[in-house]
Write a structure and sequence with these properties.
Blueprint: E1 14-17, H1 24-54, H2 61-78, H3 81-89, E2 94-96, H4 97-130, H5 135-138, H6 141-167, E3 176-177, H7 184-187, H8 196-230, H9 234-262, H10 271-295, H11 298-316
Parallel strand pairs: 1-3
Antiparallel strand pairs: 1-2
Amino acid sequence: MKTMRMANQTTVTEFFFVGLTSDLKTRFVLFGMFVIVYSITLTGNVIILMLIWLDPQLHTPMYFFLSNLSFVDICYTTTVLPQLLTNLWFPKKTISFAGCGVQIYFFFGLAITECILLAIMAYDRFVAICYPLRYTLMMNQKVCIKLALSAWLFGFLFAMVHVINTLHMPYCGPNVINHFSCDIVVLLKLVCADTHINEIIVFVIAVLILLCPFSFILITYVHILITILKIRSTQGRSKAFSTCASHMTVVALFYGTAMFMYMRPGVSHSPDQDKMISLFYSIVTPMFNPMIYSLRNKEVKGALVKVLQRCNVCHGT
């Protein structure tokens, strides 16, 4: 249990990152790798957004939520990767106290929004497959907009709770973050006071934001699976499985790593392990999302072919 430091100690105004490595050659190699990862993430998600906007056939609830997910992934990665690239390139790895708060707010706001969006997307597939005749009524434009707005609203409201819970605590030294970005789990280790209540709050929010939506997704997919198995047509069954497989892959990647990070006891956290897990769900997963949806989705691939054909016609004329 941490004890309160003396009142005359200096309050922390900035933090120093340990980063991923101190070896110069390794840092430059990682810098090149992450520049490529960031470029792929931005390009893939921008292409998804562009295709959904250009192709009228993709103006459906499923792709409306997918466009929200792609936009979240662009912003989500941008809250972490530019800071990581800066730390890898420059020897001084610092961030102001206020800057750390802003990074936490947007990182967790976008992460929680993604959690809720994935649950909404599961509900969309549930209605489409289990109640196809009522789909257009149940998932009309107003309903979709309200669901998407609720995901963004709740995401950033819960993120504010995280910011207040973490940054209102006294930081009087040390100010070295053994991570590549500001993370609640790591920051609480630097607080010069008892953080037991704060850790409980983090765990409770993790249960609400991770376990509850994940349980909801599993329940909806049990119903979806039962409905799919009742479909007599092999082609219809294959199409239903295909539309759900991409979403379930993204859910497994994102929820699996996030729950492992934030739903473990505090004593089981290893700095190096935490860095690897954080890299996966904050950088690798957003890069894979557009690949998973585009490579497994005939409609997205068809829309891409149409756009490329238009470009060829334009260049030909």
